[in-house]
Amino acid sequence: MPRQADPQLEQRILDAASRLRARGGEKALTMRAVAKAAGTTTPTVYERYCDRADILRALRIQTRAELFATLRRSRTLGQACQLYLEFALEHRHAYEVLYDKFAEPPSLNEPWPSFNLLRGHLAQRLGGTPRQHTRLMLSLWSLMHGTAMLLIRGGAVGPLRTQMFHACLDAVETVVAEAARSKGRPRSGPKWPANLILGEAAESKVIPGGNDGGAKSAPQQRGGKKGKTRPAAGLRSVRTAL
Asked: In terms of domains, do 30 and 79 share one?
């Protein structure tokens, strides 16, 4: 009697890869180790995935789809942010893999449906198009991701965990409310370059070599000498990050 295919095998492989990556980094993610952790053989893993990068890509795409399916239940930005944090805490290993080198190909040029859904919520609330809110979305994403990773790796439990979770949601609301009030006000750092595109699959691009569009940061007095200025240290770091 022929052996029946295991319908859960690929999922076991991805789950095993996620755990190995979280515990020991990419060095721990060998095809042999994945096979052992998944309860199968190395040739069987190779039948389904070419190499470690192929496994990580499959895991990343699966996690993106699962996160998007979760966020689609939201009606408001606040609901979406809460669901985002809950998903990260419930799928901690896969979540960590999802954002490893997210701004580099191939991850950069894959669809980011959750990012776009959140930008859509911003556009509904603030007006304009989703792409116009990319910089603000990065601020909110940084808040949520930073909180998620602190909770995942920091060992926060009990009241501290609860307070960190809701402090992040409150911070998101504060940032968005301030953005609504401060339309047209100057911002730190250069203007968002038109050719810096995120979340739009093949159209996405990150400008190489630190090209920031040529805008100048606000000057700061240097050493009490009149007439000589230099960008503040904080603004120089912001320019580098963008």
From this structure: no
